[in-house]
Every structure is written in structure tokens, then in C-alpha cells.
Here is the input.
Amino acid sequence: MEIMMEQAYVQSALGLMGWDLWGALPPEGRAFRGRASAHLAKLAHEQITGAEALRLRDQIKPRLEEDCFENEYERAGLRRFVKKVDEQTVLPIELQNELREVIQTGQMVWREALKRADFQMQLPYMERLFELEKRVAICKNPDQPVFETLTQEVDEGISVETIQRLFAQLQEGLAPLLRQVASRDEGVDESVLDFTAPKADMEAFARYVVERVGFDFSKGSMGEVLHPMCYGIGPKDVRITTNYAKGPIEAAMSLLHESGHGMYNYSSNEQALRYGLWGGVHGSMHESQSRYIENILGRSEAFWRFLYPQAQRRFDGLRGVSFERFYRAFSKVKIGVKRLEADELSYSLHPILRFEIEKAYFDGQLQVKDFEEVWNEKHRQLFGLTPKNAAEGILQDIHWTSGHIGYFHSYTLGNLIGGQILEAQLAQNPDFYAQVERGEFGEIIEYLKDNIWQYGQLYNAGQLVERVTGKELSAQPFLRYLTNKFAR
Amino acid sequence: MEIMMEQAYVQSALGLMGWDLWGALPPEGRAFRGRASAHLAKLAHEQITGAEALRLRDQIKPRLEEDCFENEYERAGLRRFVKKVDEQTVLPIELQNELREVIQTGQMVWREALKRADFQMQLPYMERLFELEKRVAICKNPDQPVFETLTQEVDEGISVETIQRLFAQLQEGLAPLLRQVASRDEGVDESVLDFTAPKADMEAFARYVVERVGFDFSKGSMGEVLHPMCYGIGPKDVRITTNYAKGPIEAAMSLLHESGHGMYNYSSNEQALRYGLWGGVHGSMHESQSRYIENILGRSEAFWRFLYPQAQRRFDGLRGVSFERFYRAFSKVKIGVKRLEADELSYSLHPILRFEIEKAYFDGQLQVKDFEEVWNEKHRQLFGLTPKNAAEGILQDIHWTSGHIGYFHSYTLGNLIGGQILEAQLAQNPDFYAQVERGEFGEIIEYLKDNIWQYGQLYNAGQLVERVTGKELSAQPFLRYLTNKFAR
Here is the structure.
């Protein structure tokens, strides 16, 4: 556990360096920063593949299933240790360095390729990355299909087959609902959302919203970046960010989304802290919490019944706009090409498109050079419209270029998990929406903390869902939630 | 050199962690951060005291004066390496840890003691720190008086005797000038400076001022903190900060001060970068550059002839205030108790007071418990007034509590060096003030870069002054500058 704690110290420094990259790091500081972070990564690698770590791994590994642990946290902490030693000893450091270099260069090229809407420019890096990720997966587990290894890296315990089954369920229920609502919402006037305000006022509003919901600023701080995100730097140290380009309402919603990640991240209990299991289960479980806080809670009618009068007092742009006009515009369903601009109803289909492309590639049915064409064709089938160029289509996300291959499915899976958690929470607390409308979030947040957040990484996503809901993963609760919200 | 580069990578991570401490780190993140940074420090310590480093040190040390180096940068870089190995091998890690812990706790207590103006509360930590610093100095150099070791840590090559001689010169010239100007300035109306503005406008103004003078935002970024400072995180990565509590003019001047540190920090030439000598000579040389940019340049009448019309356009608070009224208020000499609020003329005496107390302590003539009394008495002698409590007196600076003992003299020494550089620069560029008044700073900044900044840590402060001015350290040029500015 001492080794894992020291690994965490170095990871914390690397996390801070990563966070700083998007904030205060000046452009000419990047080269040195790249070398400095590679050095820290090397120090951590040397420790986790050193003689001491190997000796301990060999002692612990055969006994992981025995009844010799203080508690389940200790077992989980040591399992993590064994897994890390196993992975780091089979992954050649040269492969890791090559991967990091291709990602760093590829991301810079991506910015330019996006600007020019030029997929050909990005193609060599994307090909290289898919190839490198394949090699990484084979090193980690030569006995398992590559795509299975990659998705299970993100969502341990959830198979590709399960994901496919859930996505089929979801699509079946979603298609008619989406058609119906999108055509009905066509006439809704969105212009009422088209206003801005002095940045200090937007900041104060976003801060108020997340603090009111329950984000604790003694365990996290907020900042501004181009692309909103949440960084976990230490067990009680998260950084949530937003962006003010789309006005105060969307800025607050973005920060609320990140606060979901943030609260999950910093709420691990003492045992999870002690055994290095803090921060929450990444992948779909983490996405479920940010989307729960942003969408299920923060985009509900009850939430805005509570918040709207205050937003109106703060922002001149909302004067004279009735609650009904505001909330219809705010909740408008409108099919488009961008995942990040998608409404709550059509959103889930965007990651599915990407998941299917990844799967076809690793099944050997598709080459990277054909991604753009297949993307556009799939998009037409799913949404009835085609991106007019690569910037609107294949290049819109930085994920693949950042080496996040086999990740996209977790957004949609996170939505499904959120639907299941909502039904479980409503069963236990029928007063849920009434509390939201009164601005009382204490019981709602406590529920998430008690049932999910406190456990850190003790359970995986599948286990957690079963613990909370008593049921297996399913798309039906999320479909019921969407129908309930959007059909009326 | 590879070892030193790897030391620099870890130092850069520690620097970033230190910078973050004053910025985004949330309170509950501090404990983990403390352990994480102690771990990184330990990793660096293990490397620099490891077998490989010792072997290289033993090979290089006897040959440092030989003619076997590629150039002077290589020699200086290897001298730094030898010095670092020597120091780290004689300094027990327990002593370093104890020092760090006493500093961390002491700083927290200091905040409280300052609030309560209670020297007794701070006393045990201060006693402990003076004692620990003494032990550090004895470890580093048992053959030299402790105070000499501490001051030479800050200003290598400048002896305590030299400092005393220079301070005596300065005080002799300063006393009559200060009396004369302070009594004349008593009636000057400062209230014209007493205005504020929206923060975005203050930020934009401060940014404009430093960028106009020459600060390059591709090598540095700006932020806001309680106490303005400059952090060097990498060779081309500095962070300058300011604070907006005292309105836009002082916010811009603080940022300008830090930009002097910043430009010096990031302007090392290729050889200095290659041999790990970037960042500039700390102590009085660095202080001289920040004070040169803030005071000699930025508080000159010429500078405000250039800047004032723009400040007036930006800030309503200055409408209708004539240049003469503004500049007299801005340059008012007013004797007070606080170093950080002192005017340019009386400032230099504040560090001298602290230097004398330190010297008396290490000469064995004074105990820490008597510091407050001696401080107040010396203050009365120097300025004719007595601090009304410890918050106004002995507790006003965090330096001693932060382990910076033997540092204060460098502020005043920095002023003297600035005076010498000004005379040298004026001799070469008689158009200096005319350029400033036209807002042309290119030649002025190039001079500093060519003659001082580019060399990084190749020379020490004394050597650099001689190189630039052809003369030894002296208080006379600074006195001539002050007389010229304030007597009229």
C-alpha cells in the first residue's frame, strides 16, 4: 500500500501538470513540461516495475481470493496493485513513450485539422493511434479480443456483448420517441436563451448553482477553460471548470456537470482513502454521476421552478420571459451533428455511432481511412442528416486523437445507469422532485454519497448498479425517464 | 548534467505545486499535497545523494578550476552540481524534514499571530527556525560564521562586511534627504489615488502595462493572488501575479514588479538553458531587476507622462485629475511602519533594520525573545516613530517564519545595484527617459537582456555588477538617483 501511495503522489503531480496545461501554462513552456512529466512518469514506472514491487506482487497475487484480508477495501487495494504491476511489467516503456508522443503531436495537428475540416491531415495520427492502442491491448491481455480489453479498461466487468445488447434496447425505444418529439419541438423559440452578462455575474451564478446543489469548495475549486472538465488532483482536491461563451445558463449547466464528477471524486470514505481507492469508478459510472447531476437533476422542470426566479433577478436578458417560454427553449429537442451540442434525448445516439465504428475497426471490417465516409453514412441513417464536412463530423471529438479508444460507449452507458439510479432513488424518496423544487438537495446528494460515492473504487460499475438498484444493467429505466420527460 | 536536468524536472513539479498552493488548491487538499511534495523532494534527494552522483562529484570536484571545460557555462553548471551534491550529502534529511514541518506549521500560526498582533504566539516557531537555520548553516560550512553562510546562500560572493559598508554609505546619504522630502511632502493630497474599477478593466490595464514594457505572454501567464509574486516553473514558463485590493494603479505596479522577475527568469540564453543555469541569479540581483522595472522605469515621471493619458481614458476615477496632482500623490514620500507600503525613498531602510537584527542574533548579542523590543527601538531611531503593535512591527513579514533568514538585505542591495545599472545604461543610452516617455521600451529591455538576463546563473551578483558597470558595488549611484528624483 505504501508503494501505491507513492504512485499516487507522483500521479497527483502529473495530474496537476495536466490540469495546468489547459490553464496557466504558457505556450513556450510546453516543451520542458513534456520532458518533466515524462521524467516523473518514468520514476513511477521504475518503482512499480522494480524488484520490491515484483516480489510483493508474486506474494500477493496467488492469495487474492483467499480470506486473508482485513476487509474488502484491503483486498481491492491489493488487487489494484497486482493489476498495475502486471500491466506495467508487460507494457514496454518504449511503447508507452511512443504512445504519449503520438498523442501530443496528434492533438496539436488535430486543432489545425479541425480548423481546416481536413480529415486527411489527421488520418496518419489516427491510424497510428488505433494501431498503438491495439498493441497495448495485446500486451495487456493476449487471450482476449482487443476491443474487449479496451472497453473493459474503461468499464471493468461490462462486456462488449452487454453493451451491444443495451444499445439495441435503447435504440429501439428511442427512435420513435425522438422522431415524435423533434418534429413537435421544431417551432420552439430558442432565441430567449441568446443573451450574455458580465463575466463576474456569470461566474457568481455558476458558483451559486453548484454550491447550492452541494459542491463543497473546501474540497475543490473552479476555473475557466476552453473545454469544461473536472480534474482530480488529490483525494480531497478536485478542479471543476466551465466556459462562458454560451452565456450564463449553459455555463452553469457545464459547471454542474463537472461538479457531479467532482463530488463523486472527493467523497470516498476513510477506508477507500486508506487503501488508495479514492476518486470513484471511471468510465460509465463516473459519466453517470455527472449526467445525473446535470441532466436528471439540473435540467428537470422542478430544478428550474426553483432556480428560474433567481436567474431572472440576476440577468436582464431573462426579464419578461415567462417560465414556460424559457423552459421549453431550454429543453428543446433538435437533431444536429454535434455530440456536445445534442439535447438530452438525441445525445445517447452520438456515442453509439462512435462505438460501432470502433467495433467494426477491431473486428477487422473497417480501416481508419474509411472512417469519415462510414461516419457520415451512419449519421444519415441515425439522424436523417449528414455532416457537411469533417469538422462537423469525424473530427469533432478529441478522444481518439488523445488515445481514448473504446471510451465513447461509457457516455451512453452512463445515461442508462443514471436512469436506473433515478428509479431506485424515487422508490426510496418519492419526495424527490418536490425537494428539488424547494431547492433542498441534501437528501438527494446524501443518497448518492451513501450508495455510490463513498465506495470509491471498491466495486466496479456493474457491481455498483446491482448494489444500488438490485437489478442488472438495463436501458428501460432511462427510456421511461425520457418518455416521461419528453413525451408530454 | 543529465542528473541536474532530472533534478530540475522534479523541482519544476514542486514549483508548480508551490504556485498552486496560493491559487487553486482547496483547503482540504493541503494535507495530501504536503505528503506528495515531501515524496517528490525525497526522490530528488535520493538521486543527488546516490552512488552515481557521488562518484561523478568525486571525479569533477578536483578539476573544477582546470582548463578542461567546453566553455564557462559548462564549468558553472558542473560547479552547481558539485555544490548541490556537497550540500545535500551533509544536510541530514531529518533536519530538512524538520525544517519543512516547522515552516509549514509556523506559517499557519503566523497568520493567526498577525491577526492577533501577538508576538509571543509566534515566538516558539521563530526561535526554532533561527536555531534550525543555524544548524543548516553549520552543516553546510562549519568553517565560516553562520550569518556569512546564510547571506552568501542568498548572495554568493558578497560578504557581510561589504553589505555593512554599503548600508552605512546609504544611510549616511539617505537620512538628510529623507527628512527633507518627507516634511515637504506632508501636505500632498493622496486621495486622488483612492478609486477602484471593475476587475476586468483593472486586469486589462495591468496586462497592457507589462506587455507594453516587454513581458512576453508566450513565456508567462498572469494570475491573481493575495500577495503578488513571481514563480519560475520552467525555463520558459513563469507565473506573475498581482492583487486588485488597492485599485488599478498599484495592481499594475505590482504586476510590473513581478514582470521584472519574470523577464529576467525566462530570458536565459541557449547555453544557460543547456547547462541548467536558467532563471537568473537569485537574491539581490533578482530583486534589482524587479525593482528596476517597477521603480526606476515604472515609477519615473517619464513613464507616467506616457501612461497617464491612457489610464485616464480607462478609469473614471482619474477624470479631471491633472497629471501633476496625480504624479505628486503617486510619488509621495511618507514615513510609515510597513515595509511593503513604504515609498521608494524610505523603503531601503526597512530591510536594513531586519538585517541588523539578524546580525546581532548570529553575533550572539541578541535573543529571539527580545526581537520585538529591539525592532521597535530601532524603528524609532530610524524613522522617529514606533509600531503600535507586533502586527505593525515584527510580525509584518512572513520571511523569517518561512525560513528566509539572511534574505532581507537583498532588497536594499537590489536597489543599490539598480542605481548602478541605471548610471551604466544612461551612459550608453542618453535617450533613455525620452524613449520611456514615448512608450518605447525595446532598447531599454534589450540592454538588460544582453548585459544581465541572458547569462542566467553563469555569474554571481558581484561579478555581474562589475561586468555591466565596470565598477564595484556602491551606494552612491542609487543615492544620486534618489536625490535627482526626490530632491526637486
Notes: Chain B touches chain A through 40 residues (CB under 8 Å).
